[in-house]
Amino acid sequence: MDLALKDLGDYIAGQLPQDILGTDVVRGELTVRARPEGIVKLLSFLRDDVSCRFKQLVDVCGVDFPERTPRFEVVYNLLSLINNTRVRVKIEADEKTPVPSVTEVFSSANWWEREAWDMFGIYFSNHPDLRRILTDYGFEGHPLRKDFPLTGYVEIRYDDAQKRVVYEPVKLTQEFRSFDFLSPWEGVQKMLPGDEKAVAEEEKEKS
User: Fold this and answer.
1) Greatest CA span in the chain, whole angstroms?
2) How many CB atoms lie within 10 A of CB 94?
3) Contact assessment for residue 38 and residue 17, using Cβ atoms and an 8 Å cutoff
4) What is the DSSP string of 101-147?
5) Which has more confidence, 89 or 157?
6) In this model, does residue 189 exceed pLDDT 60?
7) DSSP one-letter string for 5-72
8) Suppose 133 and one of 6, 45, 109, 114 were both cysteines; which one would form an S-S bond, judging by CB atoms 3.0 to 4.6 Å apart?
9) With bands split at pLDDT 50, 70 and 90, how would you rate the model's confidence at 192?
10) Which residues does residue 157 pair with via DSSP β-bridges, in sequence order?
């Protein structure tokens, strides 16, 4: 199987040498690393070429590497039902340079690219409707970036006096809590009910 995938990777790279940076087969999966400016051409080839026929775009997602330049990767996962084969295409992106939209090649990319924009701030040029899809209107930041605070920037609550939903800056009432783990909401307890019997048996055996 790995040999067949390697041959497929070599075939793709040979057909589009100016757009492909490299191919790898890891754990039985083919990954193609490509130039961002050639992504539309590459996905069109993978869809239409008789040796590929990757007719389904399973998903598009972003990956954040904040310590690296460029910071992001955009990952395209494709499936060929006819050949029972999958391929993963990766391109690199940053916060300022737009990535070409592939909605004209795969209409299913529409919402996936909107999600990558919403969650990571990866901009897709020529997208027909690039706007947030999971967060609220007026939301600040991109929640799946690794430098985004876990608490967020604002909190949402219903104000009974105003009879409406209000947005307020996040306010942490205390900076540090000493957890005693006695409450199930605070995490795993040091000793679960019944554990004292096992401890008693161990002490009896030692004596």
Assistant:
1) 77
2) 16
3) no
4) P-TTT-TTHHHHHHHHHHHH---EET-TT---SSSPTT--S-TTSTT
5) 89
6) no
7) HHHHHHHHHHH-TTTEEEEEEETTEEEEEE-GGGHHHHHHHHHH-TTT---EEEEEEEEE-TTSSS-E
8) 114
9) low
10) 166
d(CA 147, CA 203): 49
Query: 136: which 2 tokens?
Result: 């609220």
Task: Tell me the CA distances in angstroms from 101 to 10, 38, 96, 130, 179, one per residue in order.
Answer: 25, 11, 15, 10, 48
Using alpha carbons, select from 43, 74, 40, 45 the residue that is nearest to residue 57.
43
Q: Which residues have C-beta within 8 Å of that of residue 185, sequence separation ≥ 6? A: none
CATH architecture of 2-206: 2-Layer Sandwich (3.30)
Q: What is the C-alpha R_g of the chain?
A: 25
Nearest Cα residue to 19 out of 40, 33, 35: 35
Where are the domains positioned within the chain? 2-206
User: What whole-number distance in Å separates Cα of residue 36 and Cα of residue 34?
Assistant: 6
Q: Shortest CA distance to 104 belongs to which of 49, 47, 32?
A: 47
- Residue 128: what residue type? P
